[in-house]
Each structure stands twice: as C-alpha cells, then as structure tokens.
Design goal:
The complex is a heterodimer of chains A (278) and B (841). In chain A, strands 12-11-14-15 form a four-stranded antiparallel sheet, with no helix packed on it. By secondary structure, chain A is of the alpha+beta class. Chain A has two domains: 187 residues, Alpha-Beta Plaits, CATH 3.30.70.20; 81 residues, Immunoglobulins (Immunoglobulin-like), CATH 2.60.40. Chain A has six helices and 16 strands. In chain A, a hairpin with a 2-residue loop joins strand 11 and strand 12. With 841 residues, chain B is α/β, with parallel strands linked by helices. Chain B has a six-stranded mixed sheet with strand order 7-6-20-19-18-8, with helices on one face. A six-stranded mixed barrel of chain B has the order 25-31-28-30-29-32. A four-stranded parallel sheet of chain B has the order 12-11-10-14, with helices on one face. In chain B, helix 9 packs parallel to helix 14 and helix 12 packs across helix 13. Classes of the chains: A alpha+beta (278), B alpha/beta (841). Chains A and B meet through helix 1, strand 2, strand 3 and helix 5 of A and strand 3, helix 7, helix 8 and helix 13 of B.
Chain lengths: 278, 841
C-alpha cells in the first residue's frame, strides 16, 4: 500500500518561497472540487514559510520552516469535524470536503499548527491537499515539491524502500515540529533550529592574530561538549536545549581561563571573549 | 472547453502554461517528457554529481499568472486630460493629471502625427526614447527588435546603456585583464567542475548568488552550491548584509563599512607581499607592472603601508580577521566569487568602484588566476555546456528584427550620430548639456571607453519627443526625483509611454499605449541566453532549453504586442510595408530566426512548434575547458569564448589587455588618461566622496545605504504588478492595509532613534525622502541600512511632486547622481549617506 510522506530538510531550504508561490498558483481561484474549493486572494497560505532569525550581529543565523498541513495521523481537525467533513485517504492525505465542511469553523480552530484557514466568502475551512487532485491524475509530486530548487522538499511513498523519501527517512534523524501537540504528523523535518551559543576568542596580548584552536567546553544536560575555535577564533555550539543553563569554559595554556553561565532562553552571542595572560 | 497546454519562456526559466476557457489557470516550471533531458556528470572526490531532470525557476515566475492578470495592467490607450496637441500641452502637470480613454485609432494617429511633426520641425535626432530590460522574454518581441526597428526608421537619438550592475568591472577590470568583449566579466566555462574538483574555499565578495541567480538562469545553480557545501568547501562572505546565500551556506561573515572593500583588498595584498605568499612565477610571467603596485601597497609611495591595521581603521573589520582571510586565501585553493557572473556586486557600484573590481582581478592574479581552484567564479554559471549549436539570442544583431541580415529583407539605417547617456538623461533635458566618455556597452574594444560624447551634438537637435517603453527608472536609476523634474519640463513637447503595466513613469506621459505580455503573442527564445557580449550565458542552467513561446491567450483588454503597436503607428505614417518587412507576422519572424539557427538541423519547425521546446544535451564525449586555465598554463585559448578577438590569431595565448597580460599598471589607462587620479594607472584605495570621511555630510547623515538588486522581483518587474509577492515578508510587509518596502537596520542604530521593528520610517537626505517599514535585525552591520533597489511602486504623498516623500519604497531617490569618477560614467548607488527617523505621518 502507498503511504505518502513529505520530508522537509531545513538545512537545505534557502527561503526562496517557490513552494509557497507554486501552491498559490495552483489553488488561487481554481476549483478542484471535491478535493478543494478555490483559494481566496487574502489570508491563506497553504504552504507558509516561517522565517527563523537567531543570534545577533555579528553572528546571526537565518533558517526557514516551510509549513504545510502536516497530514497528522492523530488529526485534531478530523476529531473536530462533523459529518465526516475531514477525512484521511488510504495513502495518508487528510482532506477537507468543501461541501460537507461548510460552516464548520471549529475545524480551523482545532489545528494547533494553524494551517487550516477560514474562507470568509465560501464559509469553509481550507488547507493543503498535497495536490491530491494532481497525484490522482498521475503527477508524481505536489507543486511545492516540483518547484523546490534545493531538494529541501522530498515527497513519495514511505513504504517503497527505493523511493527517495524512504531512503532519506532511513538515513536522517526525522523530527516532528512541535511534538508536544501529539498529533503524529506525516510531514516530518530535518534540522529544526534549536538554540546555539557562539563567541570569538581573542588573546589580549595578540589582538592582531586570530586565536585558533582554543578549547571551549560546554557543560549542561547530557554532559560536556567540547569544541575548538576555528581559524578566525570563532566557536559555536549548535542544537542546544531551550531555556537551559549551561556552563561555558574557554581555556588556553598560559592564559586565565574564563567561565560563563549561559541561559538559552534565546540564542546567545557572547561576542569577543578576551583572554589575558596568566 | 477542455484544457489547452502551451509552452513559454520568462526571464527566469521556461514554463508550461495551462489554459481553460481562454484563461490561464496554471503556470508550472516546464514539464519535460521522459528521456529529453540527459544529465551531465561531474566526478569529484570519488563522487558523481548530476543535476535532476527538471528546470528550476525564480520565485516570481511562479506568480506570473497573477502578473498577467494584474489590476495594474494598462487596459486601453489613454490621453492625459489636459494635454491638447493643438493647444495647451500642460507639461507641468505630467504625473499629476488623470487620463481619459481613447481609441487605438486616435492614439496611433496622434502619436504618428507628433512623430512626423517633431521630425519635420527639428529632425529625427529630436526624437529619443528608451526601453526597459527584461520585462519580457523572446527575441521577436524583445526591446532590440520592434522598438529599435521602429525608432531607427524615425532616425532617433539612441540612449546608450550603462553597464548597470557591473559598472566597476566594465570600466575598471577590463583595463586589468581584458574581457571587454564580455563587458569586463571573466569567462566562466567549466568552473563548476573546477570548483567541485579543486576548490577548498570560496570567497563571496559582494555576492549573493541565491538572490541574483546568474541573472536569468532561475535557481539551477542553488543545487551546485548545495554540493559544494556538502563537500565541506569553506565559505567566506564579505558583505555589510548577512545575505541569503550566506544564510543557507553558513561560513564566515565579514561585514565591512560601505565603500571600504578596496582597503581590505589592499591589506590582503600587503599580507601576501610581506609574508611572501603570492605566486611569484605567475606575477613575473603573466602580469605587468607589479613593481609599480608593490611600493604603493607597502606605503613606499605615499607613506601609508596598507597593513591590516590600516584597513581595519577604514573598514571596521578587525585586522586579525583580514590577516586570517589573507593567509587562508593563500594557503587554500580559493575561488573568488566577486559577483553573480564572476564580477558584478554592489561594491563595484560605488564611488571609485573601478578600483575594487580591478583589485579583485589583481588579488586572484597574485594567487595564479586560472590555476585549479583559483578562478573568479560567481557560482551561477559554468556548468558542462554544449556550446557548438548556435541559437540566436537578444545580444547579437542577427537575433533582432531591427538588424538581422539573415532574417529581414529591409533593415532601417539610422544616420543620427547623436547619443544620450542613460544615467544623465534628466540632466541632458533639464540643463541642455552633458558630456561623458564611453560608448555605453564597450564590447568591441577598450578604446571605446575613451570616446568623448557631447550632447547636444553639433548639427543635431535637443530632445523634444520622448518615447518610453516598459520599465520604471524611478526605482532603478540614481537621484530619481530628477526623472520627475525632467518629465515636467516644457522642453519635452511630447511623451509617449508604451507598457504592459502601470509603472512609476507611466503617469508622466501624454499618451499611454497598452502592450501585452509574451503570453499573449508568439515568440521564440533560449533560456538565459544572451550571446553578443555575454556569450554562452545559458551555461548557468543545467540544460540548454530552446522554447517556442506560444500565444497562450488573446491580448487582454485592448492591449497589443509591441510589434503590432509599432506596425499600427507605422501604418499611420505610410510605413507599414517597410516596418513589417512586407507583412511579416510574429510567427513569421519566429520561424525566420528558428530556421537560421543550428537547432533547425536537429528538429523541424513543425515538430518544434508542436512540442514547444528542444533540449540541447551535453554530448557523452564532452571535454571541459575551464575558464582561464589556458592562460595560467600559457597555452592558446581553448574555451569556446567566441567574442575573444585574439582567439583565432597568433596572440591566442594572450588576454584582451593592450599587453596581453594581467596589468597591475594599466597600459590602456596610461595611454589615454595618464594623469587621472580617480582611476589611476595603478589601482588605489580612494575614500568615497560620500562616506565616513566626508565629515560634514557624515555628521548630518551618518547611515550608509546599501541598495542591492532585489531577491523576490527582477529590476522593477513583478513587484507592484504581482501582489502575491506581498505575502513574502522579505519582499514587502503589510501594515495598516499597505504593502511597505522593508529597510533593514541594526538594533543599535534603531535604538538610538527610537525605532522599533515594523515601525514606518522615513529615510532621507538632501536628495529626497522615502518611507519604508523598519526591519530591526542583526543581519546588517551598525551604520548601514539595507533596502533593496527596484521598488516598482512610486507613490509620492503629493502626486507628481518630487519634494514629497515616496511611500512606495523607491530608495533610488536617495542615491547620488554623481558618476563613479571624472572619466568613468558609472552609477554609484552604494555611496549614499542617509538618516532615518520614525515617521509619525
């Protein structure tokens, strides 16, 4: 049996918005009943791009989380719908019946990911269908995946071991966006941004030269991590827990070591850490 | 009615168009039949790299359907209500007064009569006009075709094009390494393979290829950079803005103060010279004049050694960072990516931007330019490429209905010798006198850069009739309020604007003529191909795709193709037969161009017309010829760089400079401008006339504006005419029912001014005021404000008043009209000081 899945590799996403615009092109003003009614001009982004800017000058980071309907296996929208207005197909695609769903605004509110939109004019909830109407006509992938220039979106049959999507699923650690919602999304992610701590090590007596190879350790939940400053004296710890206290130590023989208590209630850019001679 | 499927081509990729009941319902990246694409393979580091079997387009192409049906389309011919050709013309009301609908017959008659009147009264040289670039694609309908054919018949004064976007390379780098036949850009052949096989580091200097995308090649090169990232190639980005490529690639961000890049370049040379880490054999055998350059770098000529500490003082980049960059560059096989096409980059669009571009070439020469992994490569061109089959493209005369000896029977000759210079058109009209050096795109010789022009030329008329076709310079040129002033001058007796959409300049016309898109007419073209002065640009794509651009729908409302419009006006003048070359339709022209191409030997017109596209695949026995490897190795040029005039001569192992070598001391500049201290014979760092050293101005306007080419639109195209893009916060941000243009400001600068994220702010200086929405971000260095050029929306609070703040985001209003240097007529948008305040309305 076919079990469709969409994997989104955030490390490859360049934020070009091709997926969003391809989706808009497919659905704006186009009626694909019974799959979907026309998308209106305002207020609906069936594939939205969440821009995540982290850190600060001079060490910012920028990532994107492309967010379509996640086609959850425990879909709250199905539970909220009456008259079977939201249903899951055998291949896993969750669809809203535009006729049966008329007037069922509760479906919009039921989605913790806020990816179901209310169509004021038609009085129906609407969302991503993974282009089911195209797949049923023989197309291989939804418009968003077709338009992706970097391979950040990978679509296919998770049960086919030869499919790109199954291979990627086997190879990478797949993550659930907001696992605390408990909805078992079929759409999974790679590389969801977490917290990072970064800084630059500078030697007070050698300010004209970058401090390469300085040992930096980070102690926190899960033990001690270690890194060395790069050729520019920069270091970074990525993938840290949120709202957690870490202890960062910078050590170089002949210099006074420095210790910082760092709380990851946001990403932390420590700036220059100046080591003085012992 | 059942669905019809057509093919078409845009400035950023080929598409498949679905039409139902005469309406376009869907536009996809070109759907290609199985087996038509044969991917090439590059082997590097034990891995094989091949592209996928698909085309990728730029984002705005996926919104093309919205642009075609935009509310901003010009629907009917129109006349300004207070314009009376036989009475009061009221030029002072251009940009202010409304328009009234007129018939095509009335419009064409009026335009024809005015053209004839002006020509008879003042001569053809009193007629001038200019086109937009790239709002459409296809060689039949492109600006060099219908417009040029008609205007040459009028014997008009052509406006010379400035090499916008890469002016520093054109006016500077070409005197260092030649390549004038590429307008100063280096050849890019097979540099993808070279980078995959050899590069250990890439320095992106003033380059955001993920946003500028090789100009026309869609997003095909994004995959190449993913490969390089996965291979672990180290990346460095030098840019006052943490740009989008930097964001997705990671790597080191170095953010200099605006206008100081050349100082950093000098310091890098200083490190290499003093640490003895440059390629002395190469410098000795492949370059000229190093002995003149070295003393300047060491400070022997001016008493200022160009140390990293000195450069740090100028640029705000720590000396240790410059030192490390220099050492790694020397130690690792390093690609220099100095702009989207190898060259380009905002750093070359500054005061004395020639010097930065020259230094880019010279730095890489000091490391053996052309050696494996030591290229100048934009990362957006240079895929394996089958260059042999020729297909005509807009950059070459044979591909234009105005000049193709192979396709046209009648070719109008324009005897008028007078020229205008695009950047100074307002000055020419308002002041009646302009002088400059350089024949615009100087692709035939370096000497062309030294031709002196005076407007008005002796025996010629000043401009009385201005024919504007497409585009909106208020968003792209410099100090653009001057364009408003120009339009309101009584010196312009008649102004026509022919366009598809309402643009910033449209309202300044007396008569408006509605044109249609290339989805509403027939054409033909190759994806991303330019030819002429940019030969083989389609090697920025993974495949060469030639497309039959089909008329998908009838022209909307009363619009017509540009060819049809000019045919109609020509008819009113009794010139229809000549203009249409004896009654040729657009399909006739398209077929004519197809038949002279090499593709006609591979597929018949009928089959091509039916299928809609043809893909020229790379042959199995393809032999790569990496750009400039021949020069590095001292061999004759083996790349297919057709424009290289020495390629088939005894000097075929030489570059295009006067000496044939890379010139630290430029022989061409020495010959023509030996005493020029602003583009000196040996490059120097010269502080900007509008920067942190201009004390009084800097105290008044302490922020430097950087206004690069935009990421989600193309020039002024798509933006205002494609409102789907307003849902992309990187493009415009909606607030209180208005889609504002973002201005990015560092939190430190914002806090000093009480500016919060998404406040409406006024950017201003003595040249004007622009309202934007503030984006407070650590992605810009303190002291710099980033706001893209090319807003298509000119929306002054008082219509037609150049003193009124513009709400639309045309930050080019703020930029300086001053040319790059006294003998270099390039624009300088990135030497622009401003202040910002919260706008209280």
């Amino acid at each position: 049996m076919v079990r469709l899945g969409l994997l989104i590799d955030i490390t490859k996403c360049s934020g070009c918005h091709n997926c969003f615009l391809a989706c808009r092109d497919e659905y704006y003003g186009n009626d694909y009943s019974p799959y979907s009614a026309p998308q209106p001009l305002e207020g609906q982004q069936w594939m939205q791009i969440k821009e995540i800017e982290r850190g600060e000058y001079p060490r910012p980071k920028l990532d994107y989380i492309p967010l379509p309907c996640l086609h959850c296996e425990e879909a709250p929208c199905m539970a909220a719908a009456t008259d079977g207005a939201v249903y899951r197909r055998e291949d896993g695609i969750v669809l809203i019946d535009p006729v049966k769903a008329k007037g069922q605004r509760a479906i919009v509110g039921s989605c913790p990911y806020r990816v179901v939109f209310w169509n004021q004019e038609l009085e129906i909830p609407q969302k991503c269908t993974l282009c089911a109407h195209l797949l049923d006509k023989g197309e291989k992938e939804p418009r968003c995946v077709e338009a992706c220039p970097t391979g950040a979106l990978v679509f296919g049959d998770l049960d086919d071991p030869n499919s790109a999507v199954a291979k990627l699923a086997a190879e990478k650690d797949l993550e659930v966006y907001h696992p605390e919602y408990g909805t078992s999304p079929r759409v999974r992610y790679i590389g969801i941004p977490k917290r990072f701590i970064a800084g630059e090590v500078v030697r007070d007596d050698m300010r004209g030269e970058c401090a390469e190879g300085v040992r930096v350790t980070l102690e926190g939940p899960g033990g001690v991590r270690e890194t060395y400053s790069d050729s520019y004296g920069d270091f970074e710890f990525e993938g840290l827990e949120k709202n957690t206290t870490y202890t960062l130590r910078v050590e170089l023989a002949g210099y006074v070591p420095q210790t910082f208590e760092v709380v990851t209630n946001k990403d932390v850019v420590l700036g220059e850490i100046v080591l003085t001679r012992a | 009615m059942s669905e019809q499927v057509f093919t078409n081509l845009t400035n950023s990729g080929p598409v498949t168009v679905y039409v139902k009941d005469g309406q376009i319902v869907r536009i996809r990246p070109l759907v290609v039949a199985d087996g038509d694409m044969k991917p090439w393979t590059i082997e590097a580091g034990g891995k094989k790299y091949s592209p996928w079997k698909k085309v990728t387009v730029s984002p705005y192409i996926l919104a093309e359907r919205r642009r075609i049906y935009s509310d901003e389309r010009i629907r009917y011919p129109m006349k300004r209500v207070d314009f009376d050709p036989d009475g009061e013309r009221n030029p002072q009301n251009r940009g202010k007064s409304p328009f009234v609908r007129i018939s095509w017959d009335e419009a064409a008659t009026l335009v024809a009569k005015e053209l004839m009147r002006v020509r008879e009264t003042y001569g053809g040289s009193a007629i001038s006009g200019i086109t937009s670039s790239h709002h459409n694609w296809g060689i039949v309908g492109y600006k060099m075709g219908p417009f040029a054919r008609f205007m040459n018949m009028m014997e008009f004064t052509p406006v010379l094009d400035n090499p916008d976007s890469w002016e520093g390379w054109h006016w500077g780098a070409s005197h260092t390494y030649g390549f004038f036949w590429r307008l100063g850009m280096p050849e890019q052949y097979d540099l993808l393979q070279d980078a995959l096989q050899n590069a250990e580091m890439i320095v992106f200097w003033s380059n955001d290829p993920d946003s500028t995308r090789g100009t026309y090649s869609g997003q095909d090169s994004a995959l190449w950079r993913q490969w390089l990232k996965e291979k672990g190639v180290k990346m460095v980005f030098i840019d006052p803005f943490y740009n989008y490529t930097n964001a997705v690639m990671g790597g080191k961000w170095i953010a200099p103060r605006m206008g100081t890049d050349t100082a950093i370049a000098m310091a890098i040379a200083f490190v290499w010279i003093t640490e003895d880490t440059y390629n002395k054999d190469y410098v000795a055998n492949r370059t000229l004049g190093f002995e003149k350059f070295k003393p300047y770098v060491l400070g022997e000529t001016d008493g200022v050694p160009k140390t990293p500490e000195w450069a740090a003082e100028e640029s705000g980049v720590e000396a240790r960072v410059i030192r490390t960059l220099a050492r790694e560059w020397a130690a690792k096989r390093t690609v220099l990516s100095g702009g989207s096409r190898g060259g380009e980059g905002g750093a070359c669009r500054t005061a004395y931007g020639t010097e930065w571009a020259r230094m880019m070439v010279l730095l890489q020469a000091m490391q053996g330019l052309g050696a494996p992994g030591r290229s100048i490569w934009g990362t957006t061109m240079g895929a394996p490429f089958y260059a042999d089959p020729w297909f005509p493209s807009y950059g070459e005369p044979e591909a234009r209905m105005s000049s193709s000896t192979l396709v046209a029977k009648y070719i109008p000759q324009n005897p008028t010798k007078q020229r205008l210079w695009r950047l100074t058109v307002p000055q020419a009209i308002l002041e009646g006198h302009v002088e400059w050096y350089g024949e615009g795109f100087c692709g035939k010789s370096l000497e062309q850069q030294f031709t002196h022009f005076v407007y008005p030329m002796e025996g010629h008329s000043e401009i009385k009739l201005w024919y504007r076709y497409g585009g909106s310079f208020i968003g792209t040129m410099s100090a653009t309020n001057n364009w408003v002033r120009m339009y309101q001058s009584p010196k312009l007796e008649f102004v026509v604007n022919q366009d598809i959409w309402w643009q910033s300049e449209t309202r300044f016309a007396d008569v408006i003529l509605p044109a249609c898109t290339n989805f509403e007419r027939d054409d033909i073209g190759e994806w991303a191909a330019i030819n002429g002065y940019t030969v083989h640009a389609s090697n920025g794509c993974n495949y060469r795709v030639v497309v039959r651009e089909k008329k998908c729908i009838e022209p909307l409302w009363e619009s017509k193709s540009d060819y049809q419009i000019f045919s109609l006006i020509a008819d009113k003048m009794g010139l229809w037969e000549e203009y249409t070359d004896g009654g040729k339709t657009e399909v006739d022209w398209a077929r004519g161009f197809f038949e002279i191409s090499d593709v006609a030997k591979m597929i018949s017109w009928e089959e091509f017309d039916r299928k809609g596209y043809y893909i020229i695949n790379v042959p199995d026995d393809y032999k790569p010829t990496p750009g400039l490897r021949w020069f590095y190795e001292g061999r004759p040029c083996d790349t297919p760089d057709l424009g290289n005039p020495k390629r088939l001569t005894a000097q075929r192992d030489q570059l295009g400079t006067f000496s044939g070598k890379i010139e630290f001391e430029s022989v061409s500049l020495k010959q023509y401008f030996p005493d020029d201290d602003e583009r000196p014979v040996v490059p120097r760092y010269i502080p900007s006339w509008e920067g942190h050293h201009t004390k009084e101005l800097f105290e008044k306007y302490p922020l430097a504006l950087v206004s690069p080419h935009p990421r989600f639109s193309f020039h002024c195209h798509y933006d205002k005419h494609t409102d789907w893009l307003n849902d992309i916060p990187g493009h415009r941000i909606k607030k209180d029912g208005y889609a504002w243009w973002p201005a990015r400001i560092n939190p430190v600068d914002a806090a000093e001014r009480g500016i919060k994220n998404h406040d409406i702010v006024r950017l201003y200086n003595d040249r004007g005021s622009v309202l934007c929405i503030a984006v407070v971000t650590g992605r810009v260095r303190p002291g710099v404000v980033h706001s893209y050029a090319s807003s298509a929306l000119y929306d002054p609070l008082v219509p037609g008043n150049p003193e009124a703040p513009d709400k639309g985001g045309c930050v080019n209003i703020l930029t300086s009209p001053r040319m790059m240097s006294k003998n270099v007529p390039g624009m300088t948008p990135n030497s622009c000081l401003i202040e910002i305040e919260k706008w209280e309305g």
